[in-house]
Amino acid sequence: MDHPDIEQKLGGRGEEEQETRERILSAARQLMAQKGYKGATTRKISELAGVNEVTVFRHFKNKVGILTELLKEIMDVREQLEQGLQGEFSDLKQMLVSYARTYYGLLVERKEIFMICMIEADNHPEVVQMFSSLPMTAVEVLSNKLLAFQEQGHLPKVDPFTAALMFVSTFFYAFMAKYRVNLDIEMVEEELFENASEILLQGIK
Amino acid sequence: MDHPDIEQKLGGRGEEEQETRERILSAARQLMAQKGYKGATTRKISELAGVNEVTVFRHFKNKVGILTELLKEIMDVREQLEQGLQGEFSDLKQMLVSYARTYYGLLVERKEIFMICMIEADNHPEVVQMFSSLPMTAVEVLSNKLLAFQEQGHLPKVDPFTAALMFVSTFFYAFMAKYRVNLDIEMVEEELFENASEILLQGIK
DNA sequence: TGAAAATGCAAGTAATTGCTTGCTTGGCAC
DNA sequence: GTGCCAAGCAAGCAATTACTTGCATTTTCA
């Protein structure tokens, strides 16, 4: 009796094995995002994964084992965000649009995990810092960039933190609206990126 | 055997009765916001309320009865938001600041209920529309106001919806950061209102 | 083909959870 | 005092849930 949970088969041997494990993870991800950790019973997970419930416990030590495995999927966020600011941009607006795209893309790409984090923030304390990692670093990273611009004299005296917060919030909100509460807010993302960047730069007055 | 759940004692007779009922509601509000609907067991609720578990079921038909009672607390939001835009303001900025104050105040005032709504959005479908009511009407109301200004020629051609979205998002995000994820983001709310209004109007360029 | 590993199946267990029942206790009004 | 009503207490019940065990079956791969 072993716990393949740990022994991470590196080789290409098992497509089947990994398939099963992946199916379980995928089912759990989906269910936990929808129903929360408690709502995603091991029974339901196994059913959705199309495997026997016992198999779930053969792959993972216990239920939290599944959750912690899932949480690993948000650990590498900061780098990706900073990469979104790496390239050379023709102007400030293009940089903002690109940053918006990157950030929003990250949110959507891992929407289930973020939902789980939101929902379970109080129940699984370790979640909190992981979760805060994306939204807050997103503000931080942009804030720093703006500050740099400011010091070069390219921007007036406005508070760069607030500016970054406003910008990032917008897409977080849009993300939540679209994927958590299914608001029939018809929006074209690319347009939102454009408009928001424009407004942040020029204001509405 | 009766269900005081329904028969809403109008008279002033019972301070005791209402006190108990209120204590139960308050405990449930707190626990559900923290642990979610499932996590808030009737046992825990009764303990936190300092009453016997049976008493809970004497006051409420069943557990969902408690939830639905709690949800009534967000039904009257739109009016309050519109009131926040009612008064006469010296300038546009003062209006925005006031709106921010109103909106953020509403969020904080009912933080538990909103948390519950976020968490339970998928499990209790009736929750969704109630929940969406605040965040989305907040955008709507402001959006309309901006549009009106625009038609009077007071604002340039920027998309008022995006502008409203940006503005509202900011405070929603700040609210989430402070009360859900306990980010050690030190912020003075009143300053945030000021700065965000300024930026929305003038831009950062 | 044959051994080993992965999965299925049947059954069960201890704990939790929502909710009920029957009875007692204590306070308030008349 | 008497009667009423809210609340406490003890006990329990049926369903669910995370998790286990033992064994049969299939799949994989050498």
From TrEMBL, chains A, B:
SUPFAM superfamilies: Homeodomain-like, Tetracyclin repressor-like, C-terminal domain. Signal peptide: none annotated. Residues 18-78 form the HTH tetR-type domain. GO terms for molecular function: DNA-binding transcription factor activity; transcription cis-regulatory region binding. Residues 41-60 bind DNA. Keywords: DNA-binding. Pfam families: TetR_C_7 (PF14246), TetR_N (PF00440). It comes from the Bacteria. This is TetR/AcrR family transcriptional regulator. It comes from Brevibacillus brevis. The lineage of its organism: Bacteria, Bacillati, Bacillota, Bacilli, Bacillales.
